[in-house]
Write a structure and sequence with these properties.
single chain; alpha+beta; Jelly Rolls; six-stranded antiparallel sheet; six-stranded mixed sheet; 8 helices; 27% helix; globular; PatA-like_N; RmlC-like_jellyroll; Cyclic nucleotide-binding-like; cNMP-bd_dom
Length: 387
């Protein structure tokens, strides 16, 4: 039989439960292959007469592997007409598997694969302790960029807030805590895992740029050291406009991290927001353009259930608006933008920026996407004062 795909799709639109129901209803046989940027190897499901008979996922086989694949909410799938090469391992029907899996997902028994990994269905346990989710990057495969590997033990400091340095690491194994040090105390603003980056591109393009946070190994951690010469060469090929946007995104991450700490200690969600401002982008608006800030200030405010939270202020060197490559940033989905009376903007050509981004090296695109995920995650934590 042909191994060419007869059906392909996006798991965020048509998930595994829907796909298995479709194959079951029509009594189809074949092979389902799932792919995710956050997993190195594809998941595979063999289907015979509409029922799954075996599955493989990250070293697991059978029912265990199949249930794990229900956690893949992002990625793609393809179905091909291939014969099943082995014995039947899974005995349950498709519908029984689907019902069990959906219940397990709801109860937090199946790990969700994606940019954010939650350790459970709640971020606070019964004692009030906080269990922050883990932000991850796409599965790392750009080994040409690795200059070395470094191992760290629990409590080891990888970088120090306020110090200078242009080293960047990618997390290969383990979890790293990102800590903001303030006069009121130290606060863990995020936890990052495999595929995440420690350090940012601004440290490469602006030598005077200090580290904005401290990174501490939560347990045993293995990091890959990124080859700065190769990365510097790649960055030199980017336009000033794209570098401007990348720096603006990284500034947003530092800004929202600082604001999250301030909200933790003040408990005043609108403190610091001036009165003489007017909206230029409202949360929920349809926005297609992007602007650089030339003068004045722009203020981000999130509205949720009638409550408002001031997220931070931006000025010259920052941007407002929407760029398709930023799936997890602020306006207009997560926040409104208010302007000071002297705000001046210049339009950025999003078509040109997207064309350049699409051709950029994969490592740089992964770092940009990972940063936007962190912005979204910390914004969510800050707006709910969960730190």
């Amino acid at each position: 039989m042909s191994s060419q795909p007869v059906l392909t799709g996006d798991l965020s639109f048509f998930d595994l439960a829907d796909l298995l129901q479709l194959l079951s209803a029509d009594g189809k046989s074949g092979v389902v292959k799932l792919s995710s940027r956050y997993v190195e190897t594809p998941g595979v499901i063999y289907v015979l007469d509409g029922n799954p008979v075996n599955a493989f996922c990250d070293g697991r086989e059978g029912e265990e592997a199949l249930y794990a694949l229900f956690g893949w909410g992002e990625g793609g799938f393809e179905v091909s007409r291939e014969e099943f090469p082995g014995d039947r391992v899974i005995q349950k029907s498709a519908m029984a598997i689907i019902l069990d899996a959906l219940k397990m997902v709801d109860e937090g028994e199946i790990e969700k694969v994606g940019p954010v990994q939650y350790t459970g269905d709640k971020m606070r346990d019964e004692s009030g302790r906080i269990h922050l989710p883990v932000a991850r990057g796409p599965a790392f495969s750009d080994y040409m960029y690795l200059a070395d590997e470094e191992a760290f033990r629990a409590g080891d400091r990888i970088i120090e807030q306020g110090r200078h340095g242009n080293w960047i690491w990618v997390v290969l194994e383990g979890v790293v805590k990102i800590v903001k040090n303030t006069s009121m105390g130290s606060v863990v603003v995020s936890r990052v895992g495999s595929g995440a980056f420690v350090g940012n591109l601004s440290s490469m393009t602006r030598p005077d740029h200090p580290r904005s946070a401290t990174a501490v190994a939560e347990g045993e951690v293995l990091l890959g050291v990124i080859d700065t010469r190769q990365l510097t060469s790649d960055l030199a090929g980017l336009s000033e406009d794209l570098l401007y946007v990348v720096r603006g995104l990284e500034h947003r991450l530092a800004m929202i991290s600082d604001r999250a700490v301030a909200l933790k200690y003040s408990g005043k969600p609108m403190s610091g927001l001036p009165r003489e401002i007017k909206p230029v982008v409202r949360q929920g608006d349809h926005v297609t353009k992007m602007f650089s800030i030339e003068a004045g200030q722009a203020y981000l405010v999130q509205e949720n259930g009638g409550e408002k939270v001031f997220l931070g202020a931006m000025g010259p060197g920052d941007f407002i608006g929407r760029l398709p490559m930023f799936k997890h940033v602020h306006e207009p989905d997560m926040a409104s933008v208010y302007a000071s009376p002297d705000l001046k903007l210049s339009i950025l050509d999003t078509d040109v920026l997207m064309a350049e981004y699409d051709k950029a090296p994969n490592l740089i695109k992964n770092m940009i996407e990972y940063t936007s995920v962190c912005v979204s995650l910390i914004t969510d934590l800050a707006s709910r004062n969960i730190l």
